[in-house]
Write a structure and sequence with these properties.
84% of the residues lie in helices and 0% in strands. It is mainly α and 86 residues long.
Length: 86
Amino acid sequence: MALFVYLLCALTSLACAALLWRGYRQTRVRLLLWSALCFLGFFVNNALTIVDVRLGPAVDLSLWRTLPAALGLALLLYGLVWDADR
């Protein structure tokens, strides 16, 4: 059951990223770009969580799971703070 929830989270993050990317392509509002990249990082995080759960305690992917989410949040923070005037 937990694997199903992780899969739904990954698919939701991917759908959000795709919709935000489509909105960016149509309007060229850069905040949509940064948000799409953030959700793409969340998708990779969720996909690695699925891999980590399937591998079990044999392999610890906690650092590799956290990096895409942190990178996505850093990109969104950049877009909100430094790219706001463009």
